Each structure stands twice: as structure tokens, then as C-alpha cells.
Amino acid sequence: MKNDADRSGSTEGIDAGSGSGPARVLVDATESGVRVRVHPGLCEGWGNCHRWSPEVYPLDDEGYIAIHMLEVPPELARLAWRGADACPAQAISVIGERPPPVGVVVASGTRTDP
Fold first, then answer.
1. Alpha helices in the chain (DSSP H)
2. How far apart (Å, rounded) are the C-alpha atoms in residues 17 and 11?
3. How far apart are CA 33 and CA 5, in angstroms?
4. Does the predicted TM-score (pTM) go above 0.85?
5. Which class is 15-111 in CATH?
């Protein structure tokens, strides 16, 4: 592993497949949020996904993403995108609607603050 990121992230409320070694994530749109898929051949074990979004991206004992496919609920969709964006190897793909940035006015008087 290339960093000392904490690997004790919670995956409560997330249906993650089992996996070991490098992983790659691809996400499909779902009614409940987004879907994430890990691409094993691309993951280099940097751990940035977990560092920024431990609730979505658990790591295995070697520091690689510990999931292959993941359905992410709407309340964690923003974290799924944040973790995928943080991956220097681009091993994580997210398919689904990207939430607007936090604090941005998206409609007359409507803010996206959590």
C-alpha cells in the first residue's frame, strides 16, 4: 500500500461484493443512487478513494479496494463520485447522475447544502 490511510471505513447500508487484490469500479445508474464497479487491473493501491470516501470504498489487507461491484444509496452518491475522482489510476468508474456541487444554487433559492 502506498499510504497509511485508515482502513476501518464503515460500509453500513452498502451492498458490496467480495474481492481481493486490485479492483476496478464501474457504476451504473439505479433508482436508489449510483452503481460502482472496480477495475482490478487498474487499481495501484494508492488508497485515495478510501481516504476521501471510506464509507463507500473499503480496502482489503493489502490496501486495494475490497469490492468489485457496489450499489450506492442516494445519500452516499456524492461520496462515490468524490472517491472515484480521487483515484490517480482512474480505476473507479461511476455511472449515474453526478450530484451538483455542495453550496451551489441549482434553482431559484435552492441550495445543495447537505
1. 48-52, 77-85
2. 11
3. 26
4. no
5. alpha beta
